[in-house]
Design goal:
Blueprint lengths: L20 H8 L3 E5 L2 E4 L1 H20 L3 E4 L5 H8 L11 E10 L14 E11 L2 H22 L4 E4 L9 E7 L5 E6 L5 E3 L19 E4 L6 H8 L7 E10 L2 E10 L6 H8 L6 E3 L3 H6 L16 E5 L8 E4 L5 E6 L9 E3 L17 E16 L1 H5 L4 E2 L5 E2 L2 E8 H10 L2 E2 L2 E2 L10 E4 L6 H16 L4 E4 L5 H11 L3 E4 L8 E6 L5 E5 H6 L2
Parallel strand pairs: 3-4, 12-14, 14-17, 24-25, 24-26
Antiparallel strand pairs: 1-2, 4-5, 5-21, 6-7, 7-18, 8-9, 8-18, 10-16, 11-12, 11-13, 15-16, 18-21, 19-20, 22-23, 26-27, 27-28
Helix pairs in contact: 2-4, 2-9
Length: 529
C-alpha cells in the first residue's frame, strides 16, 4: 500500500482534551478523529489496528467453540429470550454464543476519549449449561484463553470483583491500573482480593463494648455540618451517625427511606438499590421540605430515633453496639450515647456505605489500597437465578424440569485497543509488536524524486507481500526527516529505508523497538521473513 494513497494525516499537536498519552498519539498518528463530544471515528490506520485486535478476540472465541450470532441490540438478555424456546431438553445444552454489537453509554466523558465514548463495540458472550460444574469449566477455559490473549498483546491486567445489581460475588472482570482511569478499585497487596468501588467490602474492626449510660439530648447551636459537630464536641467523625433521607419510586408508590451510616462514610447508592431490588435511577436524595417534615425531622439534625413514616436502613458498621452521636430530629439538638440495638433497631441491616483506603481486607485483614483504573472484561455468573427470572427451563434425563445455569459477559473492544496502546509507546510514538500492527513493514523512500529508490521500494514491497506481509510504502514527497518522524509515530515494527545505496541493492533495516540499524541486501532482507 502506497502511503500517498492511504488517508493518514499525522499531526504535530494533539486536539485530545484528556491526559492519556496513548490517545494523544492516536490523534497525532491519524488513527482517530473527533466527531463531537464523546463521538469518534477510527480513520483507516486506526481501523486497521482495531481489526487486528478484534481478530485476536475472534480467534479466542473460535478456539473455545463459541457460535457467532448477529444482533444489533446490546441487551444480552434479549439473546437469551431469542433462544429460550430452543432449550427444551438437556440434549440441547450446553450452548455457547458470541455476539458483535455496540454499547451506547448514557454518560460519556470527553477527557477519557475512547475509554468512555458514547458508543463502543462489544464482544458479547452467552453460556448456558445443564450443570453448574460444566458452566464452571467453561468459564475457567474462557479466563485461561483471556490470559493467553493478554500475554500475546503484552497487556498486563488484574482480576477484580465487579458490582452487579443481581447480587454480590456474581461478577468478575479484568482491569488495568492507570491514573487516568474512570473507576476506583480497592485491592489487597497480601492476597488476591480486589473489587470496584461500588461493590468493595471490608472487615469491620472489632470494638470493645462497655456499659453505656442512657442517651441524652445536647444543645448544639449553630452546628450545621459534620465537621462543625466534630469540632464542637471534640470527637472523631467516626463516632458520629449520619442519617440521609432518600425517596424511592417502588411500583406506584413513593417511599421515604432513611439510611444511617458512620459519619466518615459515603452513601453507596448502588448497594442501597440492590438491597431494595430497584434500579439506581429510582433513588434520589430528598429535597422537598414537606417530605422532611413528614419524616419527623429537620435538615441537618436527622437521626434514627423518632423518625416517622420511613423505611429505616442501617449500615452494619453502625450496629456494633458502641456509643455514638446522632441528630435529635429537632433544630440545634443532637443525642449522645446512642447505641444500636438498645436505643433503636431495624430489620433492614446491611452494607450501605463505600469503602475507604486503609480499610481492612475482608479476606486477610490487611489494609486495602485504592487505585484508579478501567475495566476491559466483565463476566457475570448468574448460576440459575437468571434462568428462573426469565423462565428458561429444560427437561433433564430423568424427565424433570430444571433451570439452566447461565453466564453472560462482554469485552469492551475499544478499551482493549486502548490497553494495547497504553503499553506500547515511547517518546517518539507507538511501538507495536510484530503481528499486532496495521502493517508489518514500513518501507521509507527518503527521496521520492529518485526513481531508483522508488523502483527498489516497490520491488521489495512486492516480494514481501508475496510472503503474506502487510507493507506500507512511504512514497510521499515530504522530507526524509519528516518521514522518519512519522515512521516512529506510526510504530510499525520494522522500517526499511531504500536510501543512498539502492543502486548497490542495499537497504537499511531498523526495528522500531531498537536503535540498531542493519545494512542488508534484498536477499538478506527477504530471508528474514
Amino acid at each position: 500500500m502506497k502511503q500517498s494513497k492511504i488517508h493518514i494525516r499525522t499531526l504535530k499537536e494533539s486536539p485530545f482534551e484528556g491526559k492519556m498519552e496513548s490517545q494523544h498519539l492516536m490523534f497525532r498518528s491519524g488513527m482517530m478523529k473527533k466527531n463531537g463530544a464523546g463521538d469518534y471515528t477510527l480513520m483507516p490506520y486506526g481501523e486497521g489496528l482495531y481489526q487486528v485486535i478484534k481478530t485476536k478476540v475472534d480467534q479466542m472465541f473460535e478456539h473455545l467453540s463459541y457460535q457467532k450470532l448477529h444482533t444489533l441490540s446490546y441487551d444480552e438478555k434479549e439473546v437469551l429470550m431469542q433462544i429460550r424456546s430452543d432449550i427444551v431438553s438437556y440434549k440441547d445444552l450446553p450452548v455457547r454464543f458470541q455476539t458483535d454489537t455496540t454499547l451506547r453509554r448514557e454518560k460519556h466523558s470527553v477527557k477519557h476519549g475512547l475509554l468512555k465514548s458514547r458508543v463502543t463495540p462489544i464482544k458479547g458472550m452467552q453460556v448456558l449449561s445443564e450443570d453448574e460444574q460444566v458452566l464452571s469449566e467453561a468459564l475457567k477455559s474462557f479466563w485461561n484463553q483471556l490470559v493467553s490473549l493478554h500475554d500475546a498483546l503484552g497487556v498486563p491486567y488484574k482480576m477484580t470483583r465487579l458490582f452487579d445489581p443481581m447480587g454480590p460475588q456474581v461478577a468478575l472482570g479484568t482491569w488495568l491500573p492507570t491514573t487516568y482511569g474512570d473507576m476506583m478499585f480497592y485491592n489487597c497487596k497480601s492476597c488476591s482480593y480486589c473489587s470496584d468501588e461500588k461493590g468493595a467490602e471490608w472487615r469491620i474492626a472489632e470494638t470493645s463494648i462497655e456499659d453505656v449510660p442512657a442517651y441524652e439530648e445536647i444543645l448544639t447551636p449553630a452546628v450545621k455540618t459534620i465537621a462543625d459537630l466534630e469540632v464542637f464536641l471534640s470527637i472523631r467523625v467516626s463516632d458520629l451517625m449520619k442519617t440521609l433521607l432518600l425517596e424511592c419510586q417502588m411500583k406506584s408508590k413513593m417511599l421515604t427511606i432513611a439510611v444511617v451510616l458512620r459519619g466518615d462514610r459515603e452513601l453507596n447508592l448502588s448497594k442501597v438499590a440492590r438491597y431494595l431490588d430497584v434500579d439506581e435511577s429510582a433513588l434520589q436524595m430528598v429535597s422537598d421540605e414537606a417530605v422532611v417534615e413528614a419524616a419527623g425531622t429537620v435538615v441537618g439534625f436527622a437521626g434514627p430515633i423518632g423518625l416517622t413514616d420511613v423505611m429505616l436502613l442501617v449500615d452494619e458498621e453502625v450496629a456494633q453496639g458502641r456509643a455514638m452521636v446522632t441528630g435529635a430530629n429537632k433544630r440545634d439538638y443532637h443525642l449522645k450515647n446512642v447505641v444500636y440495638g438498645r436505643d433503636f433497631q431495624t430489620k433492614h441491616l446491611d452494607d450501605f456505605s463505600t469503602v475507604l483506603e486503609g480499610d481492612l481486607c475482608p479476606v486477610c485483614g490487611e489494609p486495602l489500597v485504592a487505585e484508579m483504573g478501567y475495566t476491559v472484561t466483565r463476566v457475570r455468573n448468574y448460576k440459575n437465578a437468571l434462568s428462573e427470572q426469565m423462565d428458561i427451563k429444560f427437561v433433564n434425563d430423568q424427565m424433570k424440569e430444571e433451570r439452566p445455569f447461565v453466564a453472560l459477559g462482554e469485552i469492551d473492544l475499544y478499551r482493549l485497543l486502548i490497553a494495547y496502546l497504553d503499553h506500547h509507546y515511547d517518546e517518539g510514538g507507538f511501538v507495536f509488536k510484530q503481528g499486532l500492527s496495521p502493517y508489518d513493514v514500513h518501507i521509507v523512500v527518503p527521496n521520492a524524486k529518485k526513481e531508483e529508490q522508488c523502483i527498489l521500494a516497490d520491488q521489495l514491497a512486492f516480494e514481501l507481500e508475496g510472503k503474506g506481509k502487510r507493507v506500507l510504502v512511504d512514497d510521499r514527497k515530504n522530507s526524509a526527516g519528516a518521514k522518519f518522524k512519522d515512521s516512529d509515530l506510526l510504530g510499525i515494527p520494522i522500517r526499511i529505508t531504500a536510501g543512498k545505496r539502492v543502486e548497490e541493492g542495499i537497504v537499511e533495516l531498523k526495528y522500531r523497538n531498537s536503535e540498531d540499524r542493519f545494512e542488508m541486501t534484498i536477499k538478506e532482507v527477504l530471508e528474514k521473513f
